Amino acid sequence: MTIETRIAALIGLPVSSLSRRHGGDLSTVYRVTLTDGETVVVKESDRAETEAAMLRAVRGSGAPAPEVLAVERDLLVMENMPAAGRPGSAWTDLAQVLERLHACHGESYGWPEDYAFGGVEIANASHRDWPTFWAERRLLCHVPYLSAALTRRIEALSRTLPERLPADPIPSLLHGDLWGGNILVSGDVISALIDPACYHGHREVDLAMLTLFDHPPARFFEMLDLEPGWKERQALYRLWSWLVHLRLFGDGYRSAVEGCLVELGV
């Protein structure tokens, strides 16, 4: 069965045209025009149903995200959202969007289902102690795939997390993969957060991911009224993202991992 036939069966309308969107490293995404003239976005993913639940959670918080129009095991059909810029034109609105997202709280840290970035599993089993969650689910899980030297440093760092992280920050709903490419902007407004990897955790994690490739101005962080010590924790939260990049894309990201470790004094 062709992708066009599958989409038509899900939506209930034939496909007029289909083109592949550029920029997706870990999945295939299409822009699809239906015979009634409506345009939708279709994503092939073996975790389509989990992503659909995450998009609904983001929308349920009051933050903008594409509406899920249809989903089956490996195919997700979404609303096509306007996008004509980068976060730099909408920092004020992004701060307000994140306030709404992070105001949606869970009972513990984690998510009902595990997730993945490509072949890198994201373990989300719940835990009530945040340093333990971060150590076990976000750092030590990478050890089997690292060199002996990096392993020693990650293990040493993990033992110090109770002194570096708050034990029980509010378990906020996180986007989980909040880099600039997953933030759609229209003018000076955030039109949608896409490609979530949601779980409940410390809200500072989303900010750390946002600074991987973008440079929010000081006023952006001031609007969020962050807890004391947040700057010192950013390297610890960025470390997980760089470890994922190292495993997915290779040694070009080793220096970023090592830079975080040096910054953390390990």
TrEMBL record:
First and last residue of the signal peptide: none
Record-linked Pfam families: Fructosamin_kin (PF03881)
Top-level lineage group: Bacteria
UniProt entry keywords in alphabetical sequence: Kinase, Transferase
Alphabetical list of InterPro entries matching this protein: Fructo-/Ketosamine-3-kinase, Kinase-like_dom_sf
Record-linked Gene3D superfamilies: 3.90.1200.10, Phosphorylase Kinase, domain 1
Xref: PANTHER family: FRUCTOSAMINE 3 KINASE-RELATED PROTEIN, PROTEIN-RIBULOSAMINE 3-KINASE
Entry similarity comment: Belongs to the fructosamine kinase family.
Protein name as catalogued: Aminoglycoside phosphotransferase
